[in-house]
Amino acid sequence: MPLLSVRHLSTGFPIGNRWVPAVQDVSFDIARGETLALVGESGSGKSLTAYSLLRLVPPPGRILEGEIHIEGRNLMDLPEAEMERVRGAKISLIFQEPMSALNPVLTIGSQLVEAMTVHGLGGADPKAAAIDLLATVRMDDPARRFGEYPHQLSGGLRQRALIALALCCRPSLIVADEPTTALDVTIQAEILNLLRQLKHDFGLSLLLITHDLGVVAHTADRVAVMYAGRIVEEAPVRALFKMPAHPYTQALLRAMPGSTHSARRLEPIEGQVPSLQRMPPGCAFGPRCAWHHDACDVEPLPMYPVSDTHGSRCVLVKEAHRLASGSAAKLPAE
Ligand SMILES: Nc1ncnc2c1ncn2[C@@H]1O[C@H](COP(=O)(O)OP(=O)(O)OP(=O)(O)O)[C@@H](O)[C@H]1O
């Protein structure tokens, strides 16, 4: 059984007199010890998917439908008090900007001790347990950092403190929303290595939200590509980089520095993610897609299999299957 299983999740906002989904029919699994990266341009619905998992959708939004199972329990059925316990004990969140998640007037140590005490952890000596945690996230001089305030730490150290806070209650799943975007490149690599190490040491699962495919290549096992609120392609990381099957994924890769799919000159994706008010019918990428044709405007587009572990919501894949019985199966990436 997967650790996390999300089925047909839709989350939306009231626009005029109707509810408009900003996350639509999203389904995915995360196995124990696995990292799933959720990628896509700004506004594609990555963060909203993450907040939906925790049932923390910003008002006036709400989850419109779907199921979210963790260790077999459907979070949608839990009363709010129990959901609070799940947020502490099963799923932890790491944000892009640790300053907004850390309390500026409390030392790092007292925030860790408080978090452990709330969850009944830390044993007889919570201070020692907190210093241990700071060592676990490779803080230099953990005993000194215990007594420091967030503003006394560099960006990278603050992110380590936040990761320590996320680990406090020994979660099974960490949701990391752009955890390295605000950091410079060398510190980014250190934090990604730390996350990989912690995942290995603690058997953690990770949902990594990022718009940076370089981070995905370095950190993830599988990738789900989101566009305009839907997952349009899902694949193991190698397969996605080797044979992207959705034109949107191909366009993301062409825009990625250092990708084998990018030409010598990077190609930014023309146009913009459509707004909720102006969502095109069928495949929302249609208006930006060089391969767009009438069949793309049929609603809803299912996930077509590229292989047992790779799917794409693109009619080209269906077409490729049809042609594969001859010898002319060609995806646009080939
Ligand atoms: N409070 C809100 N009210 C109305 N619409 C919202 C609200 N929050 C998010 N949205 C809409 O939901 C959609 C998805 O937003 P979301 O923040 O999940 O995207 P994202 O992929 O995480 O982007 P980014 O990388 O910029 O954070 C967007 O169209 C956004 O306009």
From TrEMBL:
SUPFAM superfamilies per record: P-loop containing nucleoside triphosphate hydrolases
Membrane topology listed for this record: Peripheral membrane protein
Domain ABC transporter: 6-253
Keywords: ATP-binding, Cell membrane, Membrane, Nucleotide-binding, Transport
Record's subcellular location: Cell inner membrane
Record-level GO cellular component terms: plasma membrane
An annotated GO BP: peptide transport
Single annotated GO MF: ATP hydrolysis activity
Protein family: Belongs to the ABC transporter superfamily.
Family annotation (NCBIfam families): oligo_HPY
UniProt-recorded name of the protein: Stage 0 sporulation protein KD
Record lineage: Bacteria, Pseudomonadati, Acidobacteriota, Vicinamibacteria, Vicinamibacterales
Gene expressing this chain: oppD
